[in-house]
Amino acid sequence: MPAILEEVDKPMHGYGSATPLVLIHDGGGTIFQYFMLGSLRRATYAIANPYFDDGIKPAGGIPQLAKEYAEAIRGTIGKGPVIVGGTTIATSRWSVCC
Length: 98
Hints:
By secondary structure, this protein is α/β, with parallel strands linked by helices. The protein is 26% helix and 17% strand. It has 2 helices and 4 strands; from the N terminus they run βββαβα. Strands 1-3-2-4 form a 4-stranded mixed sheet. Helix 1 packs across helix 2. The longest helix has 17 residues, at 61-77.
């Protein structure tokens, strides 16, 4: 099940060169809270848990999720620096980055 980056905020004119931000879902798998953020003056994306609606767990656990998230990030943003953050699931964020 592929992970998908959802656009939360497009940068306003003049902020297009800022490093993009990718926010990973909370412990419940949702990203709604990120749509409540004001402008962060950079392209901002969020990744919801792609397994949330089905209620299943990925066979490979957090390492599999991290791989899927990294592929989604590179597939959408391409090469270059990216800031990865979120509210919980620190393990998956570190796995995506490392």
